[in-house]
Amino acid sequence: MRHVAIVGSGPAGFYTAEALLKSGDVAVDILDRLPVPYGLIRFGVAPDHQSIKAVAKRYEKVAMTPGVRFLGNVHLGADVSTEELLHYYDAVVLATGAPLDRRLGIPGDDLPGVVGSAAFVGWYNGHPDFADLAPPLDQEHAVIIGNGNVALDCARILAKTPAEFVGSDIVAHAFEALGSSRIRSITILGRRGPHQIAMTPKELGELGKLEAAEPMVDHDDFPPAGTDAALDPGQRKSVDLLRGYAATPPDGTKPRTITFDFFAKPLAIEGDGRAERVIVERTALGPDGQARGTGQTYALPAGLVISCIGYASPPIPGVPYDEALGRYANRDGLVEDRMFAVGWARRGPTGTIGTNRPDGFSVAEAIDAAFPPGGAETGRNGAAGLDRLLASRGCDPVLFADWQRIEAAEVAAARTGAPREKLVRVPDLLKAGGH
Predict the structure, then answer these.
(1) pLDDT < 70 positions in the chain
(2) Is the pTM for the entire model greater than 0.85?
(3) Integer Cα distance of 286 and 160 in angstroms
(4) Distance between CA 335 and CA 328 in Å, rounded?
(5) Residue 394, phi-psi category: left (phi > 0), alpha (psi -120 to 50), beta (remainder)
(6) I need a surface site. Which of 33, 138, 209, 338 has the fewest CB within 10 A?
(7) What is the pLDDT of residue 6?
């Protein structure tokens, strides 16, 4: 029997477990510092994108397969080290994702009112680390820095009415705060132009269907229409949507606007003890396609600034780390002997949820090659050794059965019509269940 520990219970971790199960003769423990599984699916996907979250049903089947355990509330570094995992398991797979926000690196990026997208998304998705974030929604102007789908998610969530969250699983504290939000102007800043966005048609199209907000795009920001033919089909469709927004006159009946400000580089965030404005420099594309400052600057009012410029994996003591790329140093997923990385921990924050599947399967193949199914025993006892270690340290993991009970309680609460509380009340749910 081969023993494998996977650190992280998001898509990359579950795809790896699924791949390992195909060859058999394996026991897999999936560890997570949170008491619930699914990682990015639960805390990164927008609450109004339920069709995307449905992939969790696939992961649930994996978690319920004999030979697989989910252990929540187990902190790598605090409860167990990578060295100890390597002592008990034949292979260790790092599937931690990239949960840390990259800093803007401009003056004022630490002012109150400036938040990273990981924090803001975690706040409205019920991540316990960000339950007390309290973004300043009492302001009228918000600026979102970035030209990817996360920026669109943040803008859309800020712009929606309470009625538009019906059918979502947005948490109660965010639902209530957004319901009384005073934000009326949302500006999305991008250093380059419409042809360089990383936004997909589905997310862009949703902005045109909002009840109380309309997208605004400056027609002068586009290159000649004939140049769109060189774009790939998805990108071309996104640009078509932006051109449509630019060609649609404002109807003036919606109280909120979402303005795309292209060719705009943030230079600084200013304010008297809190964010009040973003100083922006107008840019132009050079021959190499990169944005360069023109020297023309202007100020955008901003009581809330959300940075959506990328993420990084958390450094782990003793694990080689690539500072420039914000991920674990690896070669084709191999970090060091018997230690692997998958997903964003391997590639950096790129790709879609499905992009993680090939990572998991390639690492599973590498583990199969190093420890063939039915091969000689290594003497490592996996779960038995880990359980004794955790018990000696007073760590009481949340197992998958406990998580199913938590989820059932949440679903029952949601059926009353109230938004879910998610992890905000997890300690109470566990206590009530006698855990």
Answers:
(1) 403, 405-435
(2) yes
(3) 37
(4) 7
(5) left
(6) 209
(7) 98
